[in-house]
Amino acid sequence: MAEMFYEDDADLSVIQGRKVAIIGYGSQGHAHALNLRDSGVQVVVGLRDGSSSAAKAKAEGLTVLSVADAVKQSDVVMILAPDQVQRGLYESEIQPNLKSGDALFFAHGFNIRFGYITAPEGVDVAMVAPKGPGHLVRREYVDGRGVPVLVAVEVDASGKAWDLAISYAAAIGGLRAGGIKTTFTEETETDLFGEQAVLCGGTSQLVMYGFEVLTEAGYQPEVAYFECLHELKLIVDLMIEGGIAKQRWSISDTAEFGDYVSGPRVIDPHVKENMKTILAEIKDGTFAKHFIDDQDAGAPEFKALRDKGAQHPIEKTGKELRGLMSWIKDTDSDYTEGSA
Ligand code: NAD
Ligand code: MG
Ligand code: MG
Ligand code: MG
Ligand code: MG
Ligand code: MG
Asked: Taking each helix axis from N to C terminus, what angle separates 300-310 and 286-296, rounded to the nearest 10 degrees?
């Protein structure tokens, strides 16, 4: 059984007694900075010169500094810049300003696990990784709830890194939902696998194939959109409430029988073999190298794939239909349709 912990297991005063620099003010960055501040923690935000995020952070009353100055003024540094820029940012602005006794925090273990970042001696290295998108980390906190977190300590230089990490986890609201103790290796490998095989890659492709098969057979794209994309949330909500069993309980017997006889034919054992290959390429660093090499070259493959994805016919149909469903509000003010 995993080691789980909740708010009562953490001492909020530990992080309240430190100064935290949040590096980056994107999806996770804004959520951590605002949740920490609202939990009574001293926070500054570190951004590169000319960052478009600076105005948003200042509008919230947060202090915005250069990355170097934010690191100098703080003793806990949470790196929430994109994974692919962390190595360069770390070498030029973070590491030179770290001192013994500081703590270096991550929300994903990528750069430590694959060796792109190594902390200097005397510095704690820990992870507080919310298991949900940053915008929900903020929204849930404001609503008195939280997004569950994975917590790990890679280097315990102070001998107190764990207490610091769970205190931070409590301050962002994560321990309201629950924390699980893990390692950088387990978090990194399972996170990459989950997003590639199931949550993002697998689900996106499944939805697109379903939409393609129906529209290519001559069915209306609007009907295909509702069937293959919109209804997915309703089905997944039932899984969250009561597992796959509750989903099967709620659907018709016809749908349930179709689930049993057709599911394993669509997602056949070959898919499981493909998933094992994906996991192997994550573990041996092939995926990390592929991603970082492309990013270092200016991300030509990444940009081409993003453009191709945006051209899929399901996006056009979806945009029209969502415009007609007034209750589907886009509450994330910095999201524009078509950006990723
Ligand atoms: P993001 O892309 O939303 O935001 C990154 C922010 O970093 C930008 O808004 C900007 O303020 C800053 N930034 C961008 N480029 C920079 C540069 N070159 N130099 C300095 N600062 C720069 O990032 P994110 O999705 O919040 O990811 C941050 C970390 O959190 C990553 O390690 C990621 O794996 C992890 N994580 C993200 C999520 C999520 O919900 N997106 C969930 C769990 C963990
Ligand atoms: Mg994840
Ligand atoms: Mg991830
Ligand atoms: Mg149906
Ligand atoms: Mg039923
Ligand atoms: Mg993105």
From this structure: 90
230 counts as catalytic? no
- What are the respective helix, strand and coil percentages of the chain, to the nearest 5? 60, 10, 30
Burial (CB count within 10 angstroms: exposed 0-12, middle 13-18, buried 19+), residue 337: exposed
Euclidean distance between the first and final Cα of the chain, in Å?
Answer: 36
Q: How far is the CA of 255 from the centre of ligand 5 (A)?
A: 8
Q: Whose CA is nearest to atom 14 of ligand 1?
A: 81
Is residue 184 within 8 A of residue 154, CB to CB? The reply is yes
**Domains delineated in the chain:** 4-182 (3.40.50.720), 194-324 (1.10.1040.10)
pLDDT, tens only, 238-288:
999 999 999 999 999 999 999 999 999 999 999 999 999 999 999 999 999
Which candidate, 81, 82, 34, places its Cα nearest to that of 57? 34
Distance 166 CA to ligand 3 centre (A): 20
Q: Which of 108, 230, 290, 312 is catalytic?
A: 108
State the Cα angle at 101 between 100 and 103, rounded to 5°.
Answer: 105
Q: Is 51 annotated as a binding residue?
A: yes
In this predicted complex, what is the ipTM? Answer: 0.95
Residue nearest atom 8 in ligand 1 by C-alpha distance:
26
CB of 137 within 6 A of ligand 1: the answer is no
